[in-house]
Structure formats: C-alpha cells, structure tokens
Write a structure and sequence with these properties.
single chain, 426 residues, alpha+beta, Dna Ligase, domain 1, five-stranded antiparallel beta sheet, four-stranded parallel beta sheet, binds glycine
C-alpha cells in the first residue's frame, strides 16, 4: 500500500515508522522522512490533492490540524482518494473552541463552565464582574498559542485585548471562550474513530512547560510517556462512556460523523475526568510514545488507520486496557531559543551513534544539507525515546539515547515522566 503522510514533525516521523511495512512518503517532511522531490506544504490543499493523485497513493494520513480545519479530507474524498482524518465539519471540534463548548453542553459532556463573546467590551465587562482566575481562549486555531490561563483579572483583560482588539491571531480572535480554571492532572486520551466506533490507544501524558519541575513558558510539548497511570481502567471506561460515545453520536446526529483520531485533552480530579479540549489529530509528542506501543497491542497501525478511514473498525478487535504490556517515553530535544524564536542551522552530532535496543529517534525540525550534515530547522528538533517493559526501563533507554546526541544550544527536560515514576511506575 502507498501512503502519503502530511506534516513535518516527530508526529509524522513516528507515524511513518509505524507504517514502515508500506511505501510511505511524507510532505513536507524533514531530514529523516522519505519526501517527494518537490515537497508540498501542509496548508497547500490544491498542491496536496495533486501530489496524492500524481503519486497514486492509496491512503492519505493527515498530521496537523490546519489542513483538517481547512477541509483537506473533503477535497481528497471529492478527488476519490481515501483519507484518514475528519472532514471540515467534524474538525470544528478543534477548529472552534466555542463550537466545542456548546457541543459538550448540548451532549452532557463534562467540561468547565464557560461563556462565549464575540464582542471585546462584553468579554472585558464579564471579566471585571467575575474577578477570579479564568481561562481565555481564542475561538479559532492559533498555533497552540491562543490559550491564556489568567490568575488575575488584569491578565484576562490583557488576553482579550491581544486576541480581540490587537487581533494577534487574526480571524481566530473573532470570538473568545472564557472558562473556569480546572484543577487536577492532565492526560492525553486518543481514540481512533470510524464515525460510529472507537478504538482506544494507550493514554499518554505530555509535559508542556519548557523547564524541569513544570517551570517556564509553555511549549508545544517537551516530552511524553505512555501508558499514563493517572488514567486508570476506571477513568478510561468513564471517558469512553461519557465523552467518546456521546461525541460520536452527537457528531453523527449533526451530519458530521467523526472519522480520524480524536485526542481528548483531559483534566482528572478526584477520579472524575473532564474535557479541557478536543483535538482532531494526533498529539505531538504523544504520538512518539503511542505508536511504539500500538505495535505491542494487536492490529498494526496501518490496519487501524485504514479500517477507520473506510468506516470499518468493526473488522478489528479493539485492545483491552491491559494490552499495553510495555511503556514508552520520549524526550524532546529543542533548539537554542525555543519556545521563542529558535536558532536554526546548528549541526547535530551523534545521530549515527549505535543505540540500545528499544531506543528511537524521531526527527521534527531537522534539515539535511548537501554535504549530508543534519542541522536544526525548527524549535522542537528531535523526539528521542525508549520502549521498555516498564516505565523505568523506558526512561533509562530514552535518556541514554539523549546523552549520545548533541548540538550547540540544545536543551531538554531531565524529568520527563516524573509524576508516574514517583507513583511507582518503574
Ligand atoms: N502535545 C499537545 C498537542 O499535541 O496538542
């Protein structure tokens, strides 16, 4: 089977590694992925449809949210090309925070109390009246930067100014969602969906802050591990029954059945899961730890993605919760300056070092020069990890591999998995 993966991060490299039994191309890709001779950007819908036709691919797997929200899957289906990912209408679960909150309220899905404003003065007046910590979210996509957790009213008012008056995210700031701050522990819960049924993957936990001890500015994610012990069998069952089931039924009732991967961002407190956000694509870095575990758990990644794209997950047996008899951890190695403007062009050394069995290196912001050298080409450069029998073993293998790779200005967190390891996950 010939598969085109859209995207250029560690997520897409991990997906390509999980599909290595196929003939895979990745666009625009990175230094480690097989790319077409003329790479096409992930937001160039015409270019992507033409590339899929020219390359005669059997399946397109869409990595990032932007092409999904723009309607790439609809365009591919119109051209007769099978695609894994939601249609534009179904992608509103991530593309509009206001849609997502109203959807949860309509279908009884637990999330934080909220209000939606399309007028900046009304949003500001609401904040002045409430005078408590609040979360302010741009309605549309904002490259992961449109959420401000405001401890004070001044911070919340500043967020409304930035999003709605200065319009730093453009049309994504036509409206804001203002919601209560939830307490608890976060987890990333992914299910593969075919419009009616859902196939759960190992629950993961990401580390969003740049520094050890969850300090410093937010990033796209500095490391992840799975399975995350905070998602017990009981929590997983609650999420399937109270979140995933109603979401699939609700979207189908709206005429927008959800096919693709639904990434439920959870906050878990006192044994109760609530939905922080929906994403309609795989998480990054979560995919770097989920894909290696899929291989241990039954049907291969290709079978699962292909069956979902055809609306036929019923052909497969879903894994039971104890199917994940292993653990994976990934540590993001980042470029100097990240999460601000990263320095590009630093030569990466150690990529050819021989690694321990179980170690893996997924490329993200990398580029290969004409002389064969691989250099930094983005903020998050590599996701380096380990697969082991236990989380402790995965941790040891992952950090062993991180220690073999260097470049000027490289930085990473040294405490990925700290919550689970403290709980005794080793
Ligand atoms: N790791 C969080 C995300 O992919 O949105």
């Amino acid at each position: 089977m010939r598969v085109l993966i859209v995207g250029s991060g560690a997520r897409e490299h991990a997906l390509a590694s999980g599909l290595r039994s196929c003939d895979v191309i990745v666009t625009p890709g990175n230094a480690a992925t097989p790319t077409p001779s003329v790479p096409v950007r992930a937001d160039d819908l015409d270019g992507l449809v033409n590339l899929a036709l020219k390359e005669r691919v059997d399946l397109v797997v869409v990595g990032p949210e932007v092409p999904l929200v723009l309607g790439l899957v609809d365009r591919l289906e119109d051209a007769g090309i099978k695609a894994f990912g939601p249609t534009r209408a179904a992608a509103r679960l991530e593309g509009s925070k206001a849609f997502m909150k109203h959807f949860c309220a309509t279908h009884g899905i637990a999330t934080s109390p909220f209000a939606v404003f399309d007028d900046a003065d009304r949003a500001s007046a609401y904040i002045e009246k409430e005078r408590r910590p609040l979360v302010v979210k741009a309605d549309g996509l904002a490259a992961g930067k449109g959420v401000v957790v405001a401890q004070t009213s001044a911070e919340a008012l500043w967020a409304v100014d930035q999003i709605m008056r200065a319009r730093v995210f453009g049309a994504a700031g036509d409206a804001v969602v203002i919601e209560d701050v939830l307490g608890g522990e976060e987890a990333s819960f992914h299910v593969i969906c075919d419009g009616e049924r859902a196939f759960p993957l190992a629950a993961a936990q990401d580390h969003k802050r740049v520094g050890d001890g969850d300090r410093g500015p937010n990033t796209g994610g500095m490391g992840a591990y799975a399975p995350a012990p905070v998602v017990t069998d009981e929590i997983a069952s609650k999420v399937m029954e109270r979140v995933v089931g109603p979401t699939l039924r609700g979207m189908a009732q709206m005429g927008a059945p959800f096919r693709g991967v639904l990434f439920v961002g959870l906050m878990i407190e006192h044994g109760e899961p609530r939905v922080l956000e929906f994403n309609v694509r795989f998480g990054d870095p979560e995919t770097s730890v989920i894909v290696p575990l899929v291989r241990l758990a039954g049907p291969g990644l290709l079978e699962v993605l292909d069956a979902a794209a055809r609306g036929k997950l019923s052909e497969l047996r879903a894994p039971t919760w104890n199917a994940w008899n292993g653990a994976a951890m990934a540590v993001v190695m980042a470029a100097d300056g990240y999460p601000g403007a990263p320095r590009l062009g630093d030569r990466i050394r150690g990529l050819d070092a021989s690694l321990e069995p179980g170690a893996f290196v997924f490329h993200a912001g990398t580029k290969r020069l004409a002389d064969g050298a691989v250099v930094t080409a983005g903020g998050r450069v590599l996701a380096v990890g380990g697969l082991g029998a236990t989380l402790g073993e995965a941790h040891r293998i992952a950090y062993g591999a991180v220690g073999a790779i260097h470049w000027d200005g490289e930085h990473h967190r040294s405490d990925i998995g700290h919550r689970a390891l403290v709980r005794g996950g080793a």
